[in-house]
Design brief:
five-stranded antiparallel sheet; 1 helix; mainly beta; 16 strands
Length: about 200
């Protein structure tokens, strides 16, 4: 076993490193948040076979391409997924960012979770927890007195669809998705605009 203090070199005392902290059930991946390091960041710690937890490269809001604040205030870790709360985003309406962690330990961003009913000061993502298998996610929004529950749904690849959306400004986005219900589809671009 290995114990000791884990700190990332660019972290300073005002970054609130460790505010969000979670480990998966196998003990092979831990994530620590530093929500006041700029607009926030997380640092993964990965355990190789029978080795100590080693610091990985930080994941910051710069990799999101979005207006985010408080990223890393809360974190949840499953087998292959990590969820990161950013409750100060969009005037404290809040957001949660989900990543698929592949076998190489790379964090692959998935669509952000921003329920349509959250409003200013709801602080969606203030708290969150993920089941050990990564299939269930619960997110707290204490400013709105709500808890949101999500489940990972496996959909057959034959249900995959691809569409091209063109904005009023002429920009085009190709959408590859597996909808449960086409009426429920919404897309948030890199600037936080929602397209229905």
């Amino acid at each position: 076993s290995s114990t000791g203090t884990k700190t990332q070199s660019p972290i300073n005392a005002l970054d609130k490193f460790g505010t969000g902290l979670a480990i998966n059930r196998e003990g092979t991946l831990a994530v620590a948040g530093a929500p006041d390091s700029g607009t926030g960041l997380i640092i993964p710690y990965v355990r190789s076979e029978s080795g100590p937890l080693a610091e990985g490269n930080s994941v910051s809001t710069a990799t999101i391409g979005d207006s985010v604040n408080g990223f890393g205030f809360s974190v949840g870790v499953g087998n292959d997924y990590v969820a990161v709360g950013a409750p100060e985003t969009q005037s404290s309406a809040g957001a949660v960012f989900v990543y698929y962690v592949d076998s190489a330990g790379t964090f692959n961003k998935r669509p952000a979770i921003r329920p349509s009913d959250v409003t200013i000061a709801d602080q969606f993502g203030y708290s969150l927890t993920m089941s050990g298998n990564g299939r269930h996610l619960f997110v707290g929004a204490p400013g709105g007195n709500k808890i949101y529950a999500y489940a990972l749904v496996d959909i057959a690849s034959t249900s995959e669809r691809s569409f091209t959306v063109t904005t009023d400004g002429g920009a085009s986005y190709t959408l590859d998705f597996t909808p449960i219900n086409i009426q429920a589809l919404n897309v948030t671009d890199e600037n936080g605009k929602v397209y229905l």
